[in-house]
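We were asked to recover a plausible sequence for a given structure. The inputs and outputs are reproduced exactly as logged, with field labels preserved.

PROBLEM: sequence recovery
POSITIONS: 427
GIVEN STRUCTURE:
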């Protein structure tokens, strides 16, 4: 049983001692005290189906025993920044991670977050190419430090940062974009940005394969192959931000970029890599990695043995429990059921995504696609009361983000859809 402070007491402390920028989703915020597999429990022991998974982070399930054991064992033995000494945890995980990537992508830099991974990836690209310009996508999210905040393509996530050298390309959004699902037409905009906004050469193109924060937007088919070839011609490197879509979440593939059949020059990852432990990584080729030897480069906690031991355990669990295959099976089932709900409620404008990275966009009018912001908040809140947690995103805050732990079951999917159905039927 839980003996800690109540939700109201925690809320009061948060208001007094935490940054006023810290926000929460619900009218009556939830106090989560325990987690197990795809479930979270509040202070009264009430169970919630967690369909947000700590923002696509908890891939193996909350407190997976194998991951917990790896963390505890390593913590008891040694917790120290080991980059300056030898230790097997970091080397074993680097090897295992490299084995999951195609081609020559086998040199790993560890970081503590997705922001750090993307900052480093852009730095490497700028060093390697000697160019400064970076192209990213409108509506993308890449982090909250200066280069990553610059690359992020949504005003709501940008503070007054000096956005040096970033060009934001048309978003290949099949639902709202001007060219619908025609990926190659959007790709032409990247060539235009290079021709009219740069010297003709760029450092990099960075994007997610499925935008997470942006509202689960799967880039229009054919987009990445066309853009990658444009970028290569302009001497740039292609960076795949796999912070949300990686680690089997798409079900069909281990990495999001694989869904478009491309091979990036640099891959960045975080979130799912550690199942909740702070860990990020940049993986690139030996030739590109070489640029960081020109000066010292160091990160105190990046690749520490506790986090890398957790990362190795995560990879083993994904394999052992066939979590990618489960994401495919359960995700397809869930998407079909959500699509059937769309046939019944005008409020649902779009159902999209793949595997266990699904989005449901709510609109007040299907023709004008006017974002149904208030309705989104209402449905989320009511679903919480029924014991289902989902996320929210998209530039207009009108898209449900469904990114549960990859051990989600068909029964969980049914419960989620039945709850959404019930709430919408009462509106
Ligand atoms: N890239 C993507 C695609 C993300 O979704 C996020 C986090 N929402 C980041 C980068 C930044 O990761 P972090 O919050 O760990 O810095």
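RECOVERED SEQUENCE:
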């Amino acid at each position: 049983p839980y003996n800690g402070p109540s939700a109201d007491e925690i809320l009061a402390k948060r208001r007094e001692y935490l940054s006023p920028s810290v926000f929460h989703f619900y009218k009556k915020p939830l106090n989560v005290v325990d987690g197990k597999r795809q479930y979270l429990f509040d202070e009264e022991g009430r169970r919630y189906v967690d369909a947000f998974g700590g923002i696509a982070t908890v891939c193996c399930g909350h407190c997976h025993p194998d991951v917990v054991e790896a963390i505890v064992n390593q913590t008891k033995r040694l917790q120290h920044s080991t980059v300056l000494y030898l230790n097997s945890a970091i080397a074993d995980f680097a090897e295992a991670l490299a084995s999951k990537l195609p081609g020559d992508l086998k040199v790993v830099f560890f970081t503590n977050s997705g922001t750090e991974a993307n900052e480093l990836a852009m730095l490497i690209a700028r060093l390697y190419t000697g160019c400064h310009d970076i192209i990213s996508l409108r509506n993308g999210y890449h982090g909250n430090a200066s280069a990553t905040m610059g690359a992020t393509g949504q005003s709501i996530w940008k503070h007054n940062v000096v956005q040096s050298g970033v060009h934001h390309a048309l978003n290949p959004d099949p639902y709202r974009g001007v060219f619908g699902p025609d990926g190659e037409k959007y790709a032409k905009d990247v060539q235009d940005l290079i021709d009219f906004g740069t010297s003709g050469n760029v450092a990099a193109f960075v994007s997610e394969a499925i935008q997470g924060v942006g509202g689960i937007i799967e880039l229009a088919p054919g987009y990445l192959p066309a853009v990658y070839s444009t970028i290569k011609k302009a001497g740039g490197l292609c960076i795949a931000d796999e912070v949300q879509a990686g680690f089997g979440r798409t079900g069909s593939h281990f990495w999001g970029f694989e869904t478009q059949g491309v091979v990036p020059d640099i891959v960045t990852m975080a979130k799912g890599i550690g199942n909740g432990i702070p860990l990020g990584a940049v993986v690139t080729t030996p030739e590109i990695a070489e640029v960081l030897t020109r000066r010292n480069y160091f990160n105190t906690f990046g690749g520490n043995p506790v986090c890398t031991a957790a990362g190795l355990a995560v990879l083993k669990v994904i394999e052992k429990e066939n979590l990618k295959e489960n994401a495919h099976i359960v995700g397809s089932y869930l998407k079909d059921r959500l699509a059937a709900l769309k046939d019944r409620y005008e409020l649902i404008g779009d159902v999209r995504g793949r595997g266990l990275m699904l989005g449901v966009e709510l609109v007040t009018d299907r023709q004008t696609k006017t974002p149904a912001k208030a309705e989104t908040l209402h449905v989320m809140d009511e679903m919480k009361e029924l014991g289902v947690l989902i996320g929210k995103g998209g530039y207009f805050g009108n898209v449900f983000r469904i990114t549960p732990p990859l051990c989600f079951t068909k029964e969980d999917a049914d419960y989620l859809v039945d709850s959404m159905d019930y709430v919408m039927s009462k509106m």
